[in-house]
């Protein structure tokens, strides 16, 4: 059953918000790393260089501060550090969870590889994964900080399973660990957590496993904490309306890339969680004009009313040139503010949001 | 007495040094992948990779040596993606895996290419020249049914003509191969996207066209689970295979045993015994037990040979585990002696 998104949404509304309506603006998480950070990552591996681990930590801190502020400058209501400390979405967590080991890179396609880890024994929780990262970011941010976490289904199915009779059982154990991490993040002050499950898009028939895993993740988490789920690049009709039964506050989708052809999927039956709608494409290197993004936002109003609509890019922006990522984010916020003002002025018919006023 | 043969259908993971060297030399994008006319440093790197693959297999003690197919950027679609009558389209999913290949769009007559024959010549020379060990060469090709299923036809016009053209193309390539003891024809699509009812014979005809073009023993290797029973019966009777390769790791192996009990078998059989998609390395004793279990289920069948193989290609694995799997297969034949 869906959580209670209206119980936690208001805390993200800035005190000086200019409009009565409020479309919560956010990002999925990843953001292009500054070039110098990539160089720093390489330099620390070079035995001839004096650049060491503590220098790298400083570089990561600097990059997190920079991107958090860049998100604030773009006007976002909730910000992320751009995942500057993370290398890859499975590897980063597998390095922190006992039970995983790495054997080396495997092919994805052509000469693109992924250090696919193996689960060699029961997974267990050791040190917190993200609490330090969150504490740092929240300390430098003036806006609330969202924490993206790779979900247990993806952490399980994008690894080799050597230890569990079925990968489903591995996923449930991982979900219990994610629950432990979310509890620690909440203790540290986090109020917005997003579970990323890209693996569900390739095997939508497994939605019940993801639902069960989410039940475990949110166990004991108060309703003032907002729990989002992000699933990208898939055929949503294969997991809808099942996601209405997931214990989440918000479902984050990538639809700009497909020109909103899948919107009707979500119209019947009624969409229960809040909708976080991708309104800029994460894989085109052109900045969408504000007017175009406003039209995209109106697509979301076909599914949910403004008080249940969150505005976000399609996916993480990390593969874009940085100035393009910034331009998209800035225009996205501007478009959201303009649509809010138009709703306030009664210029948008919420029953027929695509119609001209 | 059944001969036990440790072998693999190839398509190995590049050694880590080669992953790095070749991605530096070639690049990461779609347009940077092999077109078959590489030279210079790229060709030299692949020569080194091939030599490593040959030594890996002889060192492990396999009974057949494959070229290893390090150049096959697009896995079993490779013979088409490097063909001059083929344009490569978008990146598409490779079966039900988190792997992708370039969609080969066939736009003209599929004439002789010679790409695979050339790499097999090089492998045969390496086997002759090395003192690591000795074993005969095995060739690898995609089966015509799967290759047609993975490709897009923009030239031949209907499915039947396309499948036949692919079969003729593969048969033509095969005729140029150096001497080889065994031919592996990889046919995963027979399990994942089986021919429609009534179209089975067209598929088995296509396979027979290729199988008949060599004097070697032909193994038609299937993957990702059990074959549909009717299709299985067609393959046994019509594909001219010396051995059908059956996946005993993925899916329900009881279904496979049922097929063999009910419809008989080819003279020899290939068993997918080690998991090509999991880093857990099977003990040789476990592999041997699986062979005995299978043979015990079909006591009436007296196989000429049982091939001990992985259930899929091995490129899914990191390089240390790929080598360990080769050793497990070779050691299992010793357990069975």
Automatic annotation (TrEMBL), chain A:
<dbReference type="InterPro" id="IPR038071">
    <property type="entry name" value="UROD/MetE-like_sf"/>
</dbReference>
<protein>
    <recommendedName>
        <fullName>Methionine synthase</fullName>
        <ecNumber>2.1.1.-</ecNumber>
    </recommendedName>
</protein>
<dbReference type="GO" id="GO:0009086">
    <property type="term" value="P:methionine biosynthetic process"/>
</dbReference>
<comment type="function">
    <text>Catalyzes the transfer of a methyl group to L-homocysteine resulting in methionine formation. The physiological methyl donor is unknown.</text>
</comment>
<dbReference type="InterPro" id="IPR022921">
    <property type="entry name" value="MetE_arc"/>
</dbReference>
<keyword id="KW-0862">Zinc</keyword>
<feature type="domain" description="Cobalamin-independent methionine synthase MetE C-terminal/archaeal">
    <location>
        <begin position="24"/>
        <end position="337"/>
    </location>
</feature>
<keyword id="KW-0489">Methyltransferase</keyword>
<keyword id="KW-0479">Metal-binding</keyword>
<dbReference type="GO" id="GO:0008168">
    <property type="term" value="F:methyltransferase activity"/>
</dbReference>
<dbReference type="GO" id="GO:0046872">
    <property type="term" value="F:metal ion binding"/>
</dbReference>
<dbReference type="GO" id="GO:0032259">
    <property type="term" value="P:methylation"/>
</dbReference>
<feature type="binding site">
    <location>
        <position position="315"/>
    </location>
    <ligand>
        <name>Zn(2+)</name>
    </ligand>
</feature>
<feature type="binding site">
    <location>
        <position position="232"/>
    </location>
    <ligand>
        <name>Zn(2+)</name>
    </ligand>
</feature>
<keyword id="KW-0028">Amino-acid biosynthesis</keyword>
<feature type="binding site">
    <location>
        <position position="254"/>
    </location>
    <ligand>
        <name>Zn(2+)</name>
    </ligand>
</feature>
<dbReference type="Pfam" id="PF01717">
    <property type="entry name" value="Meth_synt_2"/>
</dbReference>
<feature type="binding site">
    <location>
        <position position="230"/>
    </location>
    <ligand>
        <name>Zn(2+)</name>
    </ligand>
</feature>
<comment type="pathway">
    <text>Amino-acid biosynthesis; L-methionine biosynthesis via de novo pathway.</text>
</comment>
<comment type="similarity">
    <text>Belongs to the archaeal MetE family.</text>
</comment>
<dbReference type="InterPro" id="IPR002629">
    <property type="entry name" value="Met_Synth_C/arc"/>
</dbReference>
<keyword id="KW-0808">Transferase</keyword>
From TrEMBL, chain B:
<keyword id="KW-0489">Methyltransferase</keyword>
<dbReference type="InterPro" id="IPR038071">
    <property type="entry name" value="UROD/MetE-like_sf"/>
</dbReference>
<keyword id="KW-0808">Transferase</keyword>
<dbReference type="InterPro" id="IPR013215">
    <property type="entry name" value="Cbl-indep_Met_Synth_N"/>
</dbReference>
<dbReference type="GO" id="GO:0032259">
    <property type="term" value="P:methylation"/>
</dbReference>
<dbReference type="Pfam" id="PF08267">
    <property type="entry name" value="Meth_synt_1"/>
</dbReference>
<protein>
    <submittedName>
        <fullName>5-methyltetrahydropteroyltriglutamate--homocysteine methyltransferase</fullName>
    </submittedName>
</protein>
<feature type="domain" description="Cobalamin-independent methionine synthase MetE N-terminal">
    <location>
        <begin position="90"/>
        <end position="294"/>
    </location>
</feature>
<dbReference type="GO" id="GO:0008168">
    <property type="term" value="F:methyltransferase activity"/>
</dbReference>
């Amino acid at each position: 059953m869906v959580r209670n998104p209206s119980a936690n949404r208001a805390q993200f509304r800035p005190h000086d918000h200019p409009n009565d309506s409020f479309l919560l603006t956010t990002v999925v998480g990843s953001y292009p790393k500054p070039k110098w950070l990539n160089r720093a990552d390489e330099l620390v591996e070079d035995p001839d260089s004096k650049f060491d681990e503590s220098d790298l930590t400083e570089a990561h801190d600097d990059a997190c501060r920079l991107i958090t502020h860049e998100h604030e400058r773009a006007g976002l209501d909730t910000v992320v550090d751009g995942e500057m400390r993370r290398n890859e979405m499975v590897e980063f967590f597998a390095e922190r969870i006992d039970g995983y080991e790495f054997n080396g890179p495997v092919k994805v396609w052509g000469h693109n590889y992924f250090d696919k880890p193996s689960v060699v024994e029961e997974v267990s929780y050791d040190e917190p994964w993200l609490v330090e990262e969150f504490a740092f970011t929240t300390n430098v941010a003036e806006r609330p900080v969202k924490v993206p976490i790779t979900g247990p289904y993806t952490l399980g199915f994008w690894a080799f399973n050597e230890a569990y009779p079925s990968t489903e059982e591995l996923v449930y154990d991982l979900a219990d660990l994610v629950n432990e991490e979310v509890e620690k993040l909440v203790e540290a002050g986090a109020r917005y957590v997003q579970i990323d499950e890209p693996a569900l898009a390739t095997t939508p028939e497994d939605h019940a496993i993801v639902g069960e895993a989410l039940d475990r993740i949110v166990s004991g988490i108060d309703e003032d904490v907002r729990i989002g789920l992000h699933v990208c690049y898939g055929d949503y009709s294969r997991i809808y309306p099942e996601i209405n039964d997931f214990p989440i506050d918000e479902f984050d989708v990538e639809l700009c890339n497909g020109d909103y052809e899948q919107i009707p999927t979500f119209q019947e039956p009624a969409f229960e969680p809040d909708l976080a709608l991708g309104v800029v494409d994460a894989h085109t290197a052109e900045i969408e004009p504000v007017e175009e993004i406003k039209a995209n936002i109106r697509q979301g109003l076909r599914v949910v009313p403004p008080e249940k609509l969150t505005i976000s890019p399609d996916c993480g922006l990390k593969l874009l040139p940085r100035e393009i990522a910034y331009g998209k984010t800035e225009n996205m916020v501007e478009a959201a503010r303009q649509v809010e003002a138009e709703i306030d002025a009664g210029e948008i018919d919420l029953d027929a949001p695509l119609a001209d006023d | 007495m059944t001969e036990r043969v440790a072998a693999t259908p190839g398509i190995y993971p590049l050694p880590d040094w080669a992953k790095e060297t070749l991605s530096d030399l070639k690049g990461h994008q779609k347009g940077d992948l092999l077109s078959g006319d590489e030279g210079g440093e790229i060709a030299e790197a692949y020569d080194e990779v091939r030599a490593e693959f040959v030594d890996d297999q002889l060192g492990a003690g396999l009974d057949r040596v494959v070229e290893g197919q390090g150049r096959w950027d697009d896995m079993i679609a490779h013979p088409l993606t490097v063909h001059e009558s083929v344009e490569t389209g978008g990146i598409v999913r490779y079966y039900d895996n988190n792997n992708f290949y370039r969609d080969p769009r066939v736009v003209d007559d599929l004439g002789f290419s010679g790409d695979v024959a050339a790499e097999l010549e090089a492998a045969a020379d390496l086997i002759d020249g090395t003192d690591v060990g000795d074993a005969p060469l095995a060739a690898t090709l995609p089966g015509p049914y799967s290759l047609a299923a993975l490709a897009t036809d923009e030239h031949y016009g209907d499915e039947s003509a396309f499948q036949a053209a692919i079969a003729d193309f593969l048969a033509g390539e095969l005729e140029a191969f150096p001497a080889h003891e065994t031919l592996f024809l990889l046919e995963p699509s027979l399990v994942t996207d089986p021919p429609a009812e009534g179209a089975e014979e067209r598929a088995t005809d296509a396979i027979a066209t290729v199988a008949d073009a060599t004097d070697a023993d032909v193994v038609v290797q299937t993957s990702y689970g059990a074959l549909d029973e009717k299709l299985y019966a067609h393959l046994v009777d019509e594909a001219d295979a010396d051995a059908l390769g059956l996946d005993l790791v993925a899916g329900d192996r009881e279904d496979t045993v049922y097929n063999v009990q009910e419809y008989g078998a080819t003279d020899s059989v290939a068993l997918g015994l080690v998991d090509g998609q999991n880093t857990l390395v099977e003990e040789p004793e476990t592999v041997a037990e699986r062979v005995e279990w299978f043979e015990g289920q079909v006591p009436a069948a007296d196989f000429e040979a049982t091939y001990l193989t992985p259930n899929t290609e091995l490129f899914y694995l990191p390089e240390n585990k790929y080598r360990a799997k080769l050793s497990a297969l070779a050691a299992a034949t010793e357990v069975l002696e």
